[in-house]
Amino acid sequence: MKHQFRIIILVENQIRLLSRILVLLNRRNLKISHINVSNNENGTIDMDNVQYIIDLECHEEQLMKLTKLIEKLIGIIHVYSFKIKEKNSRENSWKQIDLPLATS
């Protein structure tokens, strides 16, 4: 069963690095739902670094293989990945509560 995962990739600011990552994803026919690119605001790492956030849908085995392949690319600092909880789960759903009006 496929799950939603988020991959956060810290990279050096290199030309065409995002395109190389997207080629890896497209070769495996993975469905990408969201991509975000931003400068790294962490003070411990140089400001020349960039952070890619990619949301995709795949099997967990595919994700492990993919993170290993991405880490092998030149210019990658670190790759984080985790599972995104479903939006329709009971933990995140809102419940309507009828409260009596306060009267004085």
Order of helices and strands: EHEEHE
- N- to C-terminal distance: 56 Å
- Regions with little confidence, pLDDT below 50 for 5+ residues: none
> How big is the Rg?
19 Å
What form results from the Cα inertia axes?
A: globular
**What is the β-strand count?**
4
**Strand ordering within the main sheet:** 2-3-1-4
Q: Which structural class matches the secondary elements?
A: alpha+beta
Biggest sheet character: 4 strands, antiparallel
Task: Describe the protein's topology.
Elements: E1 3-12, H1 17-27, E2 31-39, E3 49-58, H2 60-72, E4 76-83
Antiparallel strand pairs: 1-3, 1-4, 2-3
Jot down its keywords.
104 residues, alpha+beta, four-stranded antiparallel beta sheet, 2 helices, 23% helix
Describe this structure in words.
The longest helix is centred in the middle third of the chain and has 13 residues, at 60-72. The chain has helices spanning 17-27, 60-72, and strands at residues 3-12, 31-39, 49-58, 76-83. It has a 4-stranded antiparallel β-sheet with strand order 2-3-1-4, with helices on one face. The protein has 2 helices and 4 strands, in the order βαββαβ. The radius of gyration is 19 Å and the shape is globular. 23% of the residues lie in helices and 36% in strands. The protein is of the alpha+beta class and 104 residues long.
